[in-house]
Design brief:
Elements: E1 9-15, E2 21-32, E3 39-46, E4 55-61, E5 71-77, E6 82-88, E7 90-91, E8 95-103, E9 114-123, E10 130-140, E11 147-149, E12 165-167, H1 172-175, E13 181-185, E14 202-206
Antiparallel strand pairs: 1-2, 2-8, 3-4, 3-9, 4-5, 5-6, 7-8, 9-10, 11-12, 13-14
Amino acid sequence: GDNFAIVDLQSVGVRMPEAGLVQFGIDTFGSRAHPNYPAQFDIFVDSNNDGKPDFVVFNLENGAFGSSGQNVVEVFNLATNKGLIFFFADADLNSGNAILTAPLSALGLTPSTKFTFSVFAIDNYFTGNTTDSIENMTMTLGTPRFALSGPSSFTVPAGGDTTLTVSDPVGGLAASPSQLGFQLLYRDAEASGRRDPSKDEAQAVIVRP
């Protein structure tokens, strides 16, 4: 009833899930009933590290306000003032998580490109105000500061645990100095029945060398 929303960022992650794609993972304090509102996430990407953003990756409703219920990801070119929608957002009801996927080529990136990005959280339902940000992160997708060794996929039973081995790739500190650890997002954790499922569906694991 306050006619404003505070979108409060908790953690941000970035990865290359497969060749040619980049994913930005966003977790907020508190959950949202629907992915469309009241949160828009703007990811400004400086692909050539000249201090000026070149692209914006952001989520929006597919079509006019309240028309589809679908949440999609657009890449907007700040030089041409043109945008293209490539994927649906990876998001759920009653969740604090959102994963935005984009083609590397649409952002002028390759796995070896060192780039800078900033994430801004916006109240896109009431005020249009930016309510939080995590800025000036530098990453190289193909050379992370920290990496996980072992199988690329594995299953952990309910109530169980597993051990993850962390490695320190050569050149990672210079290539990806903003990586502090790992952001873990769990798609099914909101089924835990807690009042605030966002407490179960994400973890930020800090690595201390």
